[in-house]
Design a protein that fits this description.
- The complex is a heterodimer.
- Chain A is an alpha+beta fold.
- Chain A is 41% helix and 21% strand.
- In chain A, a hairpin with a 5-residue loop joins β1 and β2.
- Chain A starts with 7 loop residues before the first strand and ends with a helix.
- By secondary structure, chain B is an all-alpha fold.
- Chain B contains 8 helices and no strands.
- The chains are: A alpha+beta, B mainly alpha.
- The interface between A and B is large, with 45 and 53 residues.
């Protein structure tokens, strides 16, 4: 198969150079005949030996480099895969929908959520009290941090977006004594009205989950995906909207 | 398509570290790799896979397609330009030892490789795949793997030789 000292033809008839030969030699992909021929050349050609040594050294360095990358698979991903009968709100879909929103960062951090609608609760998440409405009216969206409400509740606005019917809507998180909810409320004639709320488990907190009710989960996911007519507001737009009284 | 069976879930969990390295080989950016891994897992859970699917091959294929379809299309390259040396932040910042300098050089050179060459090289040189195994994972002919790996090694050798000479 060898047609001169520096070029050979592989099985597909493609001419390959010394670097290809050395690469295949490193990977133990050369057949016996070409391996013997190459070894003989390596004995006789210092430059070829040096090239092989450089390539092998680079391989070692690449392995070291990727060994450093390897350290941690996010624990919430492992938990997510282990979980059976869960409904995932797709990061991919949401990332595309809310690409320009500051809340995208929060989605990336928390997005491995498991919607859970069978969880018994001592708090009715659909109840819109004055404190929750007040926070929806005045709080800015953020990726981190919580705002304390009454009844040991914690609130975080996630994002603000315009609905198809012209109303402004906000996605928010609510926590109370180990229970968590994600909801969407829209502002209707000056009043905040919950449109959809689902309890969920934030996997980053390593709490246990319970199986989701598929129908309810899909309803929430569908609502979030279908209601917005545009991308979520950026921080400056949202701040201006809040300042203007919606 | 069937949701993941218990065995497939277990296989996927065992595959996650390797899948993460694959994400890194595709994106060459730690945050993009994290995002891609997240999206890949969610897609696998959402869409499932055939009962007889090979989990590693299937997950790599989904991952690669997601990268092509959903991330690369968003002009991530402009982010690369802004985040120069992003991969250099992966464990290569600690000291001025000769080894860390060499790793910095390799990291930068890897980042300059075309993604398809980088992915092929990582599968073969890091993961220890044969050309046939890498070809199956990346869904390309064996000859393509051979060529990509060789070109990657050649480019790395020349890049690193050049950078070493420049710093000498």
């Amino acid at each position: 198969m060898t047609d001169d000292r520096h070029n050979v033809v592989d099985m597909a008839g493609t001419r390959v150079d010394d670097d290809h030969l050395l690469s295949m030699y490193i990977d133990n992909e050369l057949d016996a005949e070409r391996t013997i021929a190459l070894v003989e050349r390596l004995r006789a050609e210092p430059a070829l030996r040096a090239r092989l040594s450089a390539m092998e050294g680079n391989d070692v360095a690449v392995r070291k480099l990727y060994a450093q990358v390897d350290q941690n698979v996010p624990e919430h991903l492992t938990t997510l895969v282990q979980a059976d009968n869960v409904v995932v709100v797709s990061f991919a879909q949401r990332w595309q929908t809310w690409a320009s929103a500051t809340a995208a960062a929060s989605c990336a951090a928390v997005i491995a959520l498991v919607m859970n609608f069978n969880q018994p609760a001592d708090f009715s998440p659909m109840t819109m009290d004055a404190q929750l409405a007040g926070s929806l009216e005045t709080s800015r969206s953020s990726a981190t941090g919580w705002e304390a409400l009454g009844n040991n509740r914690q609130f975080r606005s996630v994002l603000t977006f315009p609905a198809a019917d012209g109303r402004w809507c906000r996605e928010y998180l609510l926590a109370q004594e180990g229970s968590h909810w994600r909801g969407v409320a829209c502002r209707d004639e000056g009043q905040w009205v919950n449109q959809v709320v689902g309890s969920e488990v934030f996997l980053e907190q390593e709490t246990q989950y319970r199986p989701a009710g598929v129908d309810d989960s899909e309803k929430v996911a569908r609502f979030i995906d279908e209601t917005a007519t545009d991308v979520a507001l950026g921080p400056q737009q949202e701040a201006a909207l809040i300042s203007s009284g919606w | 398509m069937a949701k993941l069976s218990a065995q497939q879930r277990q296989d996927l969990i065992e595959e996650l570290p390797r899948l993460k390295r694959f994400c890194m080989s595709l994106t060459s950016d730690p945050s993009d790799a994290e995002d891609l891994l997240q999206i890949t897992v969610e897609r696998l859970l959402e869409k499932g896979m055939p009962e007889d699917a090979h989990v590693a091959k299937w997950s790599h294929r989904v991952c690669r397609n997601l990268w092509i379809d959903e991330i690369r299309s968003r002009d991530v390259r402009s982010r690369y330009a802004q985040a120069e040396g992003a991969m250099e932040g992966v464990g290569t910042t600690s000291s001025n030892t000769e080894e860390s300098v060499q790793l910095d050089r390799v990291s930068a050179a890897m980042e300059r490789l075309p993604p398809e060459q980088r992915a092929a090289l990582v599968q073969v040189a890091v993961e220890g795949c044969s050309y046939a195994e890498a070809a199956a994972l990346l869904d390309v002919p064996i000859g393509t793997i051979m060529s990509r790996v060789a070109r990657a090694r050649k480019a790395l050798a020349e890049d690193l030789e050049w950078s070493a000479e420049r710093e000498a």
